[in-house]
Amino acid sequence: xxxxxxxxxxxxxxxxxxxxxxxxxxxxxxxxxxxxxxxxxxxxxxxxxxxxxxxxxxxxxxxxxxxxxxxxxxxxxxxxxxxxxxxxxxxxxxxxxxxxxxxxxxxxxxxxxxxxxxxxxx
Length: 122
Known about the structure:
By secondary structure, the protein is mainly β.
């Protein structure tokens, strides 16, 4: 059974940094290597939004609101997905979740973690 478990959330002041991690279990290394992985976030009262994604080839995409501040990366050997967040702003406050798209297209995220809370104070 595939499971995604996030870690690394917390409370920081504006301008600070956090590094989120998503451990993927239940995949073989070959399956994980072909899976598109993404980070999403949802703030109270708002819809979930995509933050960043990385495909099997390492190509990345970012929401405009985080470009230049967030970096997504993946460790194929350890089946871990990372999100380095810098220059954090109060509007980055949200529950951050990782997700997997086994089709590899980055359009069908159907496996989700429970999330980790990020709170940025001004």
